[in-house]
From TrEMBL:
One of its GO terms (molecular function) is ATP hydrolysis activity. Pfam families: ABC_tran. This is ATP-binding cassette domain-containing protein. Keywords: ATP-binding, Nucleotide-binding. It comes from the Bacteria. Residues 7-230 form the ABC transporter domain. The lineage of its organism: Bacteria, Pseudomonadati, Bacteroidota, Chitinophagia, Chitinophagales.
């Protein structure tokens, strides 16, 4: 039996208010795939990601993400969707009044974790995975930009999602730090089998870490996998 894609949109139209941003979107991403989302500014990358994490409602077409039907999504179901996927932003703000460990613990509690030992193990595990195993006691302002981005990735991994959606995760970083983040994302994809969809403007990253590319252009999403293999 063929495995269901981790994410799929069929004949989908994406709106911001009354403006049609993308139409007839047909994409599927499989488990464990790494996919870039590129396109000129204002062409709808963030709108597409927002639809996938339930921030924009899917009004036309069909869609599912990690088994959730986007057409049937309402504000009550969004928290359940969010527990099953990780989201990484360019400028995610950590809570400034507590250290890294407590920032992560806050997210665990907010997503229903209760058992203290399980929480401690999970926090140690994700911090280890992002290379910050010894930095849990640090306050956010004591971290570099790259380290803060790693904490954000650790946060996205807390509920062991099968899919991570990342909106310009290297946007504010210098090339070397950005390479480190890309290596980390590819490792998570390879070792944990997590599918990753990453919006980016950074063509250097694309060249250095080649993978499948989706491109937003003229109100459409163009899939290089479909072009190459159709
Ligand atoms: N909250 C909003 N309300 C109305 N229109 C919006 C809203 N957010 C974005 N738009 C419009 O939707 C279009 C697509 O924006 P979007 O942010 O998805 O593009 P993008 O490709 O992610 O751009 P960038 O690369 O600059 O982040 C733009 O024309 C934008 O002005």
């Amino acid at each position: 039996m063929e495995e269901q894609p981790i994410l799929q949109l069929s004949s989908a139209s994406i709106y911001q208010g009354n403006s049609l941003i993308l139409s007839d979107v047909n994409i599927a991403v499989n488990r464990g795939e790494f996919v870039y989302l590129i396109g000129k500014t204002g062409t709808g990358k963030s709108s597409l990601l927002k639809t996938l994490y339930g921030d924009l409602t899917l009004r036309e077409g069909e869609g599912q993400v990690v088994g959730f039907d986007l057409k049937k999504m309402d504000w009550k179901k969004v928290p359940y969707l969010r527990r099953n996927l990780g989201v990484v932003f360019q400028d995610f703000q950590l809570l400034t009044d507590r250290n890294v460990h407590d920032n992560l613990k806050f997210v665990l509690k907010a997503t229903g974790w209760q058992e203290p030992k399980h929480m401690e193990d999970k926090i140690a595990d994700v911090l280890d995975k992002v290379g910050l195993g010894t930095k849990g006691f640090k306050m956010p302002y004591e971290l570099s930009g790259g380290e803060q981005q790693r904490v954000d990735i650790a946060r996205a991994m807390l509920n062991s999602p099968k899919l991570i959606l990342a909106d310009e995760p290297t946007g504010n970083l210098d090339p070397e730090t950005s390479d480190g983040i890309m290596q980390l994302l590819f490792r998570i994809c390879r070792e944990d089998g997590t599918a990753i969809v990453m919006a980016t403007h950074d063509y250097i990253v694309l060249q250095k870490f080649p993978s499948r590319v989706l491109r937003t252009e003229n109100g459409q999403v163009i899939d290089n996998a479909a072009i190459n293999f159709a």
